[in-house]
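Box 3.1 — From sequence to structure: ABC-type polar-amino-acid transporter
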Amino acid sequence: MSEVSVTKDVAPAADALVVLSKVNKHFGALHVLQDIDLTIARGEVVVVIGPSGSGKSTLCRTINRLETTDSGSITIDGKPLPQEGRELARLRADVGMVFQSFNLFAHKTVLENVVLGQVKVRRKDRKEAEATARALLDRVGVGAQADKYPAQLSGGQQQRVAIARALAMDPKVMLFDEPTSALDPEMINEVLEVMQQLARDGMTMVVVTHEMGFARSAANRVVFMADGRIVEEAQPDQFFNNPRSDRAKDFLSKILHH
Ligand SMILES: Nc1ncnc2c1ncn2[C@@H]1O[C@H](COP(=O)(O)OP(=O)(O)O)[C@@H](O)[C@H]1O
Ligand SMILES: [Mg+2]
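Predicted structure (token representation):
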């Protein structure tokens, strides 16, 4: 069975939200993304896994143009990603991103962190933006922290604020790049639960993670990367129980049996 046909079964092209087509990217001599073809359907949750250095973060960063590409195309909801300018700012706002390090504005309150982009990028009025921010902070379980500064919160709380901040832009797709990797173990679940709920609510999500429990329960599809390529993709059960490539078998044996 070809890998392409697996993709099409899971993500019908008619409902494609994010489409990467023959995307290539180099860092100097390093060919970090090699002919990446990836279609993400509206409402789909794609978990990206693979060894360190395989290009997972770069893949995420190209989807919202934090990195440029050398060739190929990326479209979000049918629109090609522009190179720069106001149009790029608007399209980028359609792509929410949550990083390993929470990246909150340290000198602004939690509430202000979630208000800011709505006012500056989405041009919402402040009252409305504050109401949205409070509702989102409640939704991720940190409503009581709204007037504190990020440093007064635990890592798990800060990461949930970062999720609320991304959601406040009303994104079409959310990218998560190892959102729990910097957290103490007891805080991982509170973040994963917020992500699980988002997935259940129908958000389109691309999640780079080593949390295989999350991948099994929340993903519609697992994409396995190695050396800048998508080596294998499948539904989680199929991928974890019956990986096809030697690279995936080797990777899984290392992370599941250590
Ligand atoms: N800005 C950069 N400049 C040069 N090399 C980079 C840069 N960012 C990442 N790389 C290299 O690209 C490769 C893929 O990195 P990355 O996408 O971060 O992988 P992953 O997230 O899967 O660990 C690695 O070899 C990394 O060292
Ligand atoms: Mg990474």
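Summary of the box: The chain is about 40% helix and 25% strand.
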